[in-house]
Every structure is written in structure tokens, then in C-alpha cells.
Amino acid sequence: MEVALIGNPNTGKTSLFNNLTGSYEYVGNWSGVTVEKKVGLFKNNIGKLIDLPGVYTLNPLSKDEGVVTSFFLNEKFDRLLNILDASQLERNLHLTLQLLEYGKPALIGLNMVDVAASRGINIDIDKFSHLVGVKVVPVVARSGKGCDQLVNVISDEKETLERKILVYYGKDVEDTILLTAGELEGKTNHSPRWLALQWFEGNKYVEEYLRTIINPQKMEALLNDVTEKVKVKEGGKSLPHFIYLKRKMVIENILTESVSKKKAGTPLTEKIDSLVTNRYLGMPIFLALMYVMFMLTFDWLGTPLADLLDKLLTGPVTNAIEKSLSVVGASPFIHDLIIQGLVAGVGGVLVFVPQIFILFFFISLLEDSGYMARVALVMDRIMESVGLNGKAFIPMMIGFGCNVPGIMAARTIETPRERLLTILLTPLMSCSARLPVYALFVGAFFQGQKALVVLSLYVLGIVVALILAKVFSSTILKSETSLFVIELPPYRLPQFQALRRSTWDKGKGFVRKAGTFIFAGSVFIWVLSYAGPGGLKVDMDHSFLAAIGGVLAPLLAPLGFGTWQAGASLLTGFLAKESIISTMNIIYFVPKGENLQGLLSNYYTPLAAYSFMVFILLYIPCLATTATIYKETSSKKWTAFSILYALAIAYLLAGIVYQGGKMFGLV
Amino acid sequence: MFGHLKAGEKAKIINISHVGHLVKRRLLDLGITEGTEVCVKCVMPFGGPIMIESCGQCVGIRRKEADCIEVERL
Lengths: 667, 74
Ligand SMILES: Nc1nc2c(ncn2[C@@H]2O[C@H](COP(=O)(O)OP(=O)(O)OP(=O)(O)O)[C@@H](O)[C@H]2O)c(=O)[nH]1
Ligand SMILES: [Mg+2]
Description:
The complex is a heterodimer of chains A (667) and B (74).
Chain A: E1 2-7, H1 13-21, E2 38-41, E3 48-51, H2 63-74, E4 79-85, H3 89-102, E5 106-111, H4 113-118, E6 121-123, H5 125-132, E7 135-138, H6 147-155, H7 171-184, H8 192-200, H9 204-213, H10 216-233, H11 239-258, E8 259-261, H12 268-276, H13 282-300, H14 302-327, H15 332-350, H16 353-369, H17 371-385, H18 393-399, H19 403-409, H20 416-425, H21 435-445, H22 450-474, E9 485-488, H23 496-515, H24 517-530, H25 544-556, H26 564-575, H27 578-587, H28 596-600, H29 606-618, H30 623-633, H31 636-663
Parallel strand pairs in A: 1-3, 1-4, 4-5, 5-7
Antiparallel strand pairs in A: 2-3, 6-8
Chain B: E1 10-15, H1 21-29, E2 37-43, E3 50-54, E4 57-61, H2 63-66, E5 70-73
Antiparallel strand pairs in B: 1-2, 1-5, 2-3, 3-4
The complex binds guanosine-5'-triphosphate and magnesium ion.
């Protein structure tokens, strides 16, 4: 049995999905967290559960909404599990009515009953269920309350309630539905009533589908006829609006009979909102929060933890490995490979795990609290002036964790032009894999102002993105249309459990990559640095790696870091940004008792170090990001563009920093 | 006109037909249409967006769109 989860955005579908399948998919408190279909197995093995993006209606505006409509048209499933937000029933029921017209067995999960209760909304479940004509189970997806009962009802194969037609759309529309149904006879497995109504409402996906099975001219005639009739009889109303109003009437009837409301006090949400979206305080509060986040990650908490881990790895752990190597009698080659290659390469990356986790913790906090949508609101004015909209800020914030989900999140942006622009610019957001480079360099060169220097890089990423947005939107991506309507969810106190899971879920990718990709990469890099045209165990300056990196060195000289070492690290950085650090740890192999930070001052001046960080920030989307850009734009041209413009802008800016700094007498 | 309302003021929407097609559709999705009662929650500076509330649901829209919505003060 396959059950499809469907409902309005931000109603807790994914929370329920996680609860019922025991998986962990992305949950957050804003609309449009889930942007593609996810499949999981019920814990008790009764079948598959399919999580879908949230939609308000089946008539899509944006790409993530289109995913749902295509799913309904093209894929097979047995049941619908419609999730409703009990505190927003009126709006939610518009979708429910469309789902019931679809005609598959359905079940309603009434979620957020806790929120509804705190707002003084009381729902008579039996009456409601009777009026809608499907079974209704109240749940709290966040805590798991009611989930057992829900599973029981799902597993119960027979549908007991009588299905009735809830909305009567008036004679003209109903007649046209029948005519359309006649045309469709025997040509489709979908409910003709549903297809016809979706088509009347202007659903492009359904129209496309109908075109393949009925004569387009006949379709046009039918639609024109009914549109005209409705227009004449209903005082100039458009057909989609007329259908909307009919549904609305039915919904109002259902609600007056089954829902009662008491007065409740001002919710806490509004008090918080009067502060964080305050006219004057909104922006300063956002910047202050960012500052605290960077201080904790790079200074107050992150650095001491990373140092501790570093001592542990270079001290006891390395000693233990060396001891066991000598016990098993490893050859010098194996010994060097493990100590100089693996321990240096992988260990050098693992050291930054505490800092990465702190950053992810903050991102999770932002996502789960409901602040994300507020940031989009506060930022909209600036974004509008560069040809984007505030919603584009959400993918960018997510991009601070990792660019890949950031680019995926751009699916919720409705206009294709703004979406493309967001996809192209999100890689400029400094992802967590770039963090180790900063941590290393600020530790070595900017002891006093660690957090400030790093913050300057993050802000530089944002500023460059905004400037380029302006440039692109007034040259190659010109268009007037822009759409900004954003739902601001109520604040929810993040739960420790949820935060822990979502931090771990993001962070484990980093750890896993260190154990696989970086592990293999370290071996490869070390071998390249060990072998050379002159044979094995050559001096590193004559190795293959030096030869490869040396090709780039002259090009990089104007930026202040024209060494083969920098060239080689940048090359590996395209594969994954973490490899920059692991490569550096291998090539600047650090003798015992010293650390890489101390050694770096032999190769970089502080100015060159800053220029290097600027270059790393901007220079190229990593391999995984490039693949995602290609998948999301399905255009080779834009993918190539995203790489080339990044290289150009990185070269330009790093050059300006270095040469300009030199002119002002900095070193 | 919506744009002239201050934070805290309540109004009823009487005409939304001058707003762009896409924005109108999205507002309709959120249950905001002719006849809806809304309350202005806050107004961002420099002509930025405004935040409105209806039926316990907060929504942010741009000022220039808000200016196209005709309302009647309550
Ligand atoms: N108070 C309360 N909060 C809930 C409940 N269910 C979910 N939430 C919270 O609601 C927010 C949205 O949850 P998600 O599961 O991401 O919602 P979704 O429907 O998958 O959202 P989209 O993927 O954006 O459509 C999260 O912050 C959850 O913690 C509930 O029953 N009560
Ligand atoms: Mg979801």
C-alpha cells in the first residue's frame, strides 16, 4: 500500500512522516521546507509513505508545487493522507475539497491540535468527520501524540464512510463537467470531475495532460462556453474565482457547524514580532544575532574545543597509531602514508568538527524557530532593489550550512527568473566546508579579531551576491515580474530533541565525507606528493603534485599566493572545499610539536592570507554544488556560467584586496 | 488605500482586482481576498514590505502591492 502525505505548507507533514517512518527528513518552521518527493517505509511495514512539498491548491505556481501536481497526474498510489493545520482550517480545507474530488480513498490527520487549543479553537471531531465525509484523526506530529491511532486507521483497509459530492458548482459548470467526462470516457484512470475542475481553474499541468487525450479545439470550445456563461450570470466573475467562492461557501458551512471559538490572550508570537520585525530594530537585531553566532563559532566556544581536539589528535592519537604501526612492523612507506597522508589529511579536517557543529546548531535554531521567514521580510527591501525578492534570502541562509540544500530551496521562488538568479548566487554564500580554511588562517594571522575577520568574509559573500544580482538582473536576466508574498509562521519554541537531530543530520555529512571522500583524497594527494618524475620518495618540491600546482602558481602570483602549494590546494578544493585543508596539512607536513598555524607564516603574509580567504570564499562551486546547479537549471550553459563568473569575480576581488592593500602599505 | 494604514489599524478589503495576477493568486491561497478583515502588524522602513494579519495568520506583502488594494477602515 502506498500512502501519499499531502497538505498546506508548514502544517507538519514532514514531522509526521518522520514519526511514522522513523526516518529523518528536513523539518523547519517556514513554508516550503520540503521541495521534492520523499519515500519512506511505515515502521510497522504496512506500506510506503510518500512525503510531498506543501501546496495551497493543486494548481501550481512554483516548481515545488508542480512536483505535487505531476505526482497526482503521473504516479500510482493507493491512499491520501491529508494533513490539516487545526488552527488554520478554513484555508486548509480548500485543498481538502480538491483532494476529495480526486476520488482516491482519503483520511484526514488533524495536526497542531495543541496550537488550536491554545488559541481557543474547539473542533468537534465526529461532526467534522461526518460533514467532510472522511475519517479524521487528531494528532500532534511534533510529539507523536495520536500517531498510533492514525496508523491503525490507515492499516484498516476498508473505508467505511459514504463518499458524497460536497460542492455543487451550479448547473452550467456541472453540465460542462459532464460533457468533459463524456469526452474522457475510457481514456483516463483519473476522476473526470477532478480533471475538469482543475482545468477550469487554469491548472496548466492538467490542461497539458488533457490535450494529449482530447481534441484541443473541442476543449477550447467547452471552456469558452462555460467561462462566458459564468461571466454573464455571476456579474463578471472569472471561472476560477467562481469555483473558489463555491468551495468557500461549503467550507464556511462545515466550520460553523463543527468549530467553536473562545477568546484567547495575545499570543507570545506577536510580542516577539513587535521586536524582531520592528521598523528600526529589525536589521540591527539580525546583524547582532549573526555576530553572536560567529563569536561562538570562531571564538568563545568553537576555538577552545577545536584546540582541545587538535591536541588530542596530534598527541595521544598519533602516538597510539605510531605504536601500533611499529608493533605490526609496517614498512616505512605504509608508515608515511598513514602518518603524513591520512592522519594529517583526515585529522586536519576532523579538528573542525566542533566549530561546524556549533554553526549547524545555530542554523537549525534559525530554521526551527520561525525567524527565517522574518529575515526574508526584513531583507525584502534590499533584495528588491537588486532585482530579487526577500524569499531568495532563505536559500542563501541555508547555503551557509551547505550550498546544495540552499540551491534546492530556491524551488519555492515562484518566478523562474528570480529562481535562476538565486541558484546562480547561492554558491557565493560561505558554506561550512569553507569554515576550516578561515578558522585556520584567522588563528594564524588575526588572533585579536577572529570573529570580526570571519564575519567580514561572510558579509563580503552576501554583498558580492547582491551586487552581482543587480548586474545580472539589469543585463542578462531582465524582466519586470517579481512576486513577494510570504507566510510568517508563528514562532515555535525549538525543542532540544529536534535541534539535536537536525544539527546532527547536517553535521554527519561532514563527518562522513571526512571518512570517505577526504580519506581517499588524502591517500591520493599524499601519493602524488611522494612520487615524482624522479621516482618515489622525492623531495616534495619535485613531486608530481608540485608540478601540477606549479602550473597555476604564476597565475596566482598577483593575488599574493603564487606558490605551487596554493595552486594544488585550490585544485582539490573544486572536488570538496574541505580538501583544501586536508591538502594543506599534507603538503605543509607539520613536524611534531609544531602546528600548521605557526608554519603558515613562512608562506603567507597577513594580507596574502586575507586575499587567499577571499579567493576561497568566491572561486568556484564545489563538485556537488555544480551537479545540483545542473540538475536544477537543466542547462549546461548556466552551469558553466556559474563556474566561470565565480572564478572571474574571485580573481578580481582577491587581486583588488592584495594589490590595493599593498598600495596602502599593508603587508 | 492599504498603504496609508499604520501599524495596529484594522481594515476590510473591498477591492483587490488591481493587484498583479500572481500576487492575487497567492493572497487568495492564503485566504486573503475581498471581504477579508486584516490588521496591519508592522511596516518596514524605506518603502519596505508590510506585515498583515488575518484569521491568526501573518503574511508579508510589498508596499506597492498593498497600495493597489482598496480597503475600508474599521
Ligand atoms: N506545536 C506544534 N508544532 C508542530 C506540530 N507538528 C509540526 N510542528 C512544527 O511545525 C513546523 C513545520 O513542520 P514540518 O514538518 O517541516 O512541516 P511541513 O508540512 O513538512 O512543511 P513544508 O515541507 O514546508 O510543506 C516545525 O517547526 C514543526 O516542529 C504540532 O503538532 N504542534
Ligand atoms: Mg515538509
